[in-house]
Design a protein that fits this description.
The chain is an alpha+beta fold. The protein contains 6 helices and 4 strands; from the N terminus they run ααααβαββαβ. The protein starts with 10 loop residues before the first helix and ends in a 26-residue tail after the last strand.
Length: 186
């Protein structure tokens, strides 16, 4: 989605197209969480195999997956590409500081670059956080040069990933933490 010059939109309206829809009032039970967990591990699994894993029939699993998609809990099935295998071994996180609100029309144009995997508006000492995957340090340098040429960008801080110990999508499970103020038992 591109923004047209001259539109008077709030910062929330400017980012509505990238915000995730919230589940539409559908509660997720233990079967749904098992289904989502299995799909997160292997989205190519058949409904029959999935049914065996979660102790439901294939038609019941199919129905639940349809409802999970309709509610927004399951957004899409995607191929996960391996960065180094496709010629992009350099993973980095780039903090972008800008004048004013970070998600400007000009800055959001970096979403068109195939090196940019994620763009987040964040709280803290920076405005935007980018996850980028590049072919080399020279490619990262060129991307940073393009960022600096963007009106409003004041500075960047880059963090190059040396090793990745965990890389996964959102998980279906939820950790039950004790109430605030309660001490963990060791």
């Amino acid at each position: 989605m591109r923004f047209r010059k001259g539109l008077n939109m709030s910062s929330v309206e400017k980012t509505d197209h990238v915000r995730r829809p919230q589940p539409a009032g559908r509660s997720i039970d233990a079967f749904d969480r098992k289904i989502l967990g299995a799909l997160a591990s292997n989205a190519d699994i058949s409904y029959a195999e999935l049914g065996q894993m979660v102790a439901l029939s294939a038609p019941a699993v199919h129905d639940r997956v349809k409802k999970l998609r309709a509610s927004g809990c399951l957004r899409r099935t995607a191929a996960l590409l391996d960065g180094p295998a496709i010629g992009k071994p350099l993973l980095a996180f780039v903090h972008v500081d800008s004048a004013g609100w970070g998600g400007t029309q000009e800055l959001m144009t970096v979403a068109d670059l195939p090196e940019v995997e994620e763009i987040h508006s964040v709280a803290g000492d920076t405005c935007m956080l980018l996850k980028v995957r590049c072919a080399s340090t020279r490619a990262l340098e060129a991307l940073l040069a393009q960022l600096y040429a963007t009106p409003g960008v004041k500075s960047t801080r880059s963090y190059i990933v040396l090793s990745t110990y965990l890389d996964r999508t959102a998980q279906a499970g939820i950790t039950e933490f004790p109430p605030v103020g309660q001490v963990y038992a060791v």
